[in-house]
Amino acid sequence: MVVCEVRTANDFHVVCSFSIPLRSIYLLAPLSSSHRIEDIGARSANLVNMVAVLFDFDHTLGFDHQLEERVLADLGFRWTGGPVPDQDVRRVLLAFREDHKPIREAVSEALEKWGLTSKEIAEAFDEFVRDCLTRVPESVKPAEHSQELLKALTEKKIPFGVFTNGWKALQEAKARQIGYLCHVVTSEELGLWKPDPEAFKEAIRWFRFEKDRVAYVGDSPETDIVGAKKAGLVAIWVNFENKPYPEELPESPDYQVTSLLEIVSIVSKL
User: Fold this and answer.
1) Which of 10, 56, 111, 268 could make an S-S bridge to 121, C-beta 3.0–4.6 Å?
2) pLDDT higher at 4 or 167
3) How far is the CA of 239 from the CAs of 46, 47, 242, in angstroms?
4) Reduced 3-state DSSP string for 183-240
5) Considering its fold, how many domains does the chain have in total?
6) How far apart are CA 155 and CA 103, in angstroms?
7) Are 107 and 125 in contact (CB under 8 A)?
8) Which domain holds residue 133?
9) In this structure, is residue 1 part of a structural domain?
10) HSE (side-chain half, CA atoms, 13 Å) at 103
11) What is the pLDDT of residue 50?
12) 128 domain residue, yes or no
């Protein structure tokens, strides 16, 4: 089990675990004063100068099969008594993912357009959140070899975490569904969104990784690779479908993989 340490408003806390045999556990302690690193089973080296890996989640470590889209469409049907336009559903998620509106605001605008009252909007939004979280087990599946990858990084004592666009509760639930129990940092909580280089830099500060020793792994050339490169990170493009990389983009990945298992050998050499 690996435990990662992140900064909160009050202190540092133990927030991360990935299940492997107890002899391999490394713990970043709670931490009111010394912020030391404690090793369960053996003395641990400090994370300074160690390679670390940050992962995108969706279409990199796992797939949710359009969970939010399906929940929102079902929600609209229940509250309006009929199907809602597909473009309305897409517009809600684009408002959140690209315009960076808070998820409550984006969903509420659609509910208002569909004729719900203020009281109904509040109730329906709570239902949207609850249904998304409830349907995670049936919707979210790990990417091929994602669990083997995380276990291999753990056994090599390579620190890792997840930094992803998305809303906190859902992204955490999706990560846990694939067996990743570490802290998930989201753009929503940082107030900074990929591909903004500052978003990557702030996520690194949360995990207390060394910027010059971090690789970022993601599937989106525009969001993950360009942003990571501009932030000064090693960029690893996950290209499951073996597509050509967009030539018009200003940055190219340092590495390209079609299998997550390739990442272990890459980061071991950094």
Assistant:
1) 111
2) 167
3) 33, 29, 5
4) CEEEHHHHCCCCCCHHHHHHHHHHHCCCHHHEEEEECCHHHHHHHHHHCCCEEEEECC
5) 2
6) 37
7) yes
8) 67-138
9) no
10) 20
11) 64
12) yes
Q: How far apart are CA 261 and CA 11, in angstroms?
A: 35
The model carries a pTM of 0.82
Looking at the fold, whether 125 and 199 belong to one and the same domain comes out as no
Q: Let me know: does 200 contact 39? Beta carbons within 8 Å.
A: no
Which letter does DSSP use for residue 256 in this model?
A: E
Q: What is the pLDDT of residues 18-47, one digit of tens each?
A: 443 322 323 232 322 222 222 222 223 344
192-206: pLDDT as tens digits: 999 999 999 999 999
CB neighbours (10 Å) of residue 247?
6
Residue 95 and residue 193 in one domain? no
Q: 165 and 58: one domain?
A: yes
Residue with tokens 């067996």: 179
Specify whether 122 is located in the same domain as 185.
Answer: no
Does some domain include residue 33? no
**CATH number, position 52:** 3.40.50.1000
Residue at a domain's end among 138, 166, 181: 138
Three-class SS state of 56:
coil
**What tokens were used for 3?**
């435990």
How many Å apart are CA 208 and CA 4, to the nearest integer? 9
User: What would the two tokens of residue 145 be?
Assistant: 């070899």
Q: For residue 14, which of 22, 24, 23, 32 has the smallest C-alpha distance?
A: 32
Q: Determine, yes or no, domain membership for 26.
A: no
Asked whether residue 161 falls in the same domain as residue 224, the answer is: yes
* Strand 52-55 to 214-218 pairing: parallel
Helix (H, G, I), strand (E, B) or coil at 26: strand
DSSP assigned state of 24: G
- Of 110, 138, 166, the position where a domain reaches its end is 138
Q: Which two tokens stand for residue 27?
A: 């713990």
Tell me: do 129 and 150 sit in the same domain: no
